[in-house]
Design brief:
Elements lengths: L1 H77 L1
Length: 79
Amino acid sequence: MPAPVVFVVVGVLLATLLALVVVVVVLVRRLARMAGEIRDIERRIGPTLAQLQQDAELTTSELDRVGEALSRLGRDANG
C-alpha cells in the first residue's frame, strides 16, 4: 500500500517541478523580449535625448547671460 502513495507524491512533486521550470522559461523569454524592446526604444529616442541635452546646455548659457545682464542693470540703476 505505501508504494502507490509514494509514487503519487513523487509524481505530484515532479509535475510541480516541471510547472516551475516552464514558468521560469516563459518568464526568461518575456524578459529577453522586453530587453530587446527597451534597446529598440533607446535607439529610437537617443538622438532626441542628445538634442534635448544640447538645447538645455544652450538655454542654461543664455539664462546665465541674461542673469548677468540683469545684475549689471540693477547695479547701474542703484549705483
